[in-house]
Amino acid sequence: MDSRFSIDFRPKLFSTLKSYNKTQFSKDLMAGIIVGIVAIPLAIAFGIASGVGPTEGLVTAIIAGLLISVFGGSKVQIGGPTGAFIVIIYGIIQEFGVGGLAIATIMAGVILVLMGIFRLGSVIKFMPYPIIVGFTGGIAITIFSTQMNDLFGMNIADVPANFIDKWICYFHNIGNINWWAFAVGILSILIIVYTPRFSKKIPGSLLAIVIMTTICWLLERFAGITSIATIGDLYTLPSGLPEWRIPAIPESETIFSTMQSLLPVAFTIAMLGAIESLLSAMVADGVIGDRHNSNTELIGQGIANIVVPFFGGIPATGAIARTMANINNGGRTPIAGIVHTVVLLLVLLLLGSLVGAIPMPCLAGVLIMVSYNMSGWRTIRSMCRQSRSDIVVLFTTLILTVIFDLTIAIEIGLVLAVVLFMRRIMENTSISVINDELEVHHDGEADDERLTIPPFTEVFEIDGPFFFGVANKFEEMARNRSNAKIRIIRMRKVSFIDATGLHNLEIFISASLESGHKVILSGVNETVYRSLNRSGIVAMVGKENVLDHIHKALTRASELQ
Asked: Are residues 322 and 202 located together in one domain of the fold?
């Protein structure tokens, strides 16, 4: 098979096993155990915040984490549920139910696999940074807003999904605050904030859960305080291995109509998963001095998201916080990621009753700190000192993510970024008309020189790419020119020309020839020449009038007088 069409699928697990040894296994084992412990509260919290439950969060971390480690393109990537998906998952469940979420996740997995097969891993990395910062900040604000009910212990049965309606609901129920629950949430946040000052090894979220679960148990047993809601009060606790299940399709719809409705959100899940996982892998590469395989990573992520819904799981991707915890504790191969899933599996099978005792305000505190760390407020502050176009894209994406949803935010953010990028190129591309003296720059190799333009000759100089935005500007400038006999179009700085540029250039040349003008093209590079030749413009002006340097063009103009 031609290598150009081969699938770039080379999981890191198999290449690292060739030189694996006991020393590295001991490091991976310790790193995997620590990362597994770190992942316990996050998997539970993300599952609950997404609108499913603690079991689904743990199942996702186990199955997706295992498959991403086995089939992924990074040595140290840790996969599982992440905060970025909370908003999307919650919205899908509200509109399409759990069955719709499963189908959307499978579709997203297929899209990710196709991205990897068609080698789009490197392309995904070019997502404009202001969009990434904008939707990440928007997601952080949304996650924060979803935790107010549990943090204040309001016990609102049906919290609205819309951001504005949600806060209106909170203010209407402000008199229902449970101060015991609020105290548990605040203490949890303080423990998470101050734990790194005493220990870098113990995750603050885990310590907060252990301490606050113990305190709440003591308050209930010895003080009779039973108003603090726990996971066990609200959710069915895990009791064994998850069972294989076929995603349910609404009876009123066919599988095709359901997939058609879910395609936009499935694409959003796939794009978000691709961006988050590849960014995480790139950060990890910088720390360990390695290079991940982007296409393999996308295929691994896709496989995980195809499989996990059949066990009741939710979308998963690479998690940068858990990946960095893996690196910092010595993990250097996918074995560490596999060990971390074993730790989570033991929690699922053996510690279900203890999971049920975790207070909901404590989990709210954990997620509030997750949202704070996601917010990137320092990055946003620094970007506010950059170009206005980047600021517009950033805050447009952020506001749309918060007020509407991530799908709309990414779509409009991308369109806005492209439009502003085109505008920036247009501003940097100039078109000038010269009919007396022409200044020729030699880029420091020799002194600049001034050339005299022959009589009845004018030079149209295009300085930059000749695409649709600039083509209209060229047409406007060419419309009101003098009746010179010869027109030289200088294209030495035209790096590419698109269909609109070719069309406008053809119209200009055709009109010039019909009015008796001679047209010469100067400074045409090979790429642009091929485009001009395919479009018939070379034949229109004649090959002898398509030249590679302005000296030759001016000499030709003198000959045509």
From this structure: yes
Residues 292 and 177 in one domain: yes
437 lies in some domain: yes
Q: Who contacts 462 (Cβ-Cβ below 8 Å, separation ≥6)?
A: 429, 431, 470, 474, 489, 490, 491, 493, 494
Q: Could you tell me if residue 481 is inside a domain?
A: yes
List pLDDT tens digits, range 279-314.
889 888 988 989 999 999 999 999 999 999 999 999
Q: Are 211 and 191 in contact (CB under 8 A)?
A: yes
Tell whether the model's pLDDT for residue 551 goes beyond 50: yes
Whether residue 16 lies inside any domain: the answer is no
Cβ atoms of 83 and 45 closer than 8 Å: no
Handedness of CA 238, 29, 12, 281 (dihedral sign): positive
Cβ atoms of 347 and 99 closer than 8 Å: no
pLDDT band at 446 (very low <50, low <70, confident <90, very high): very low
Say what the pTM is. Answer: 0.76
Within this chain, do residues 284 and 352 fall inside the same structural domain, yes or no?
Answer: yes
Q: Which of 420, 449, 482 is the last residue of a domain?
A: 420
Alpha carbons within 13 angstroms on the beta-carbon side of residue 102 total 20
HSE, side-chain direction, 13 A CA sphere, residue 9: 19
Place of tokens 């695409």: 467
Instruction: Mark which of 420, 446, 472 sits at the end of a domain.
Output: 420
Q: Which two tokens stand for residue 68?
A: 């991403």
Structure tokens at 543: 């090959």
| 202-208 contacts, C-beta under 8 A, 24 or more apart | 203/37, 203/38, 203/41, 203/325, 204/369, 205/38, 205/41, 205/42, 205/366, 205/369, 206/37, 206/38, 206/40, 206/41, 208/41, 208/362, 208/365, 208/366
**Cα–Cα distance measured from residue 341 to residue 205, given in angstroms and rounded to the nearest whole number:** 18
Domain identity same for 484 and 349: no
Alpha carbons 267 and 256: distance in angstroms, whole number: 16
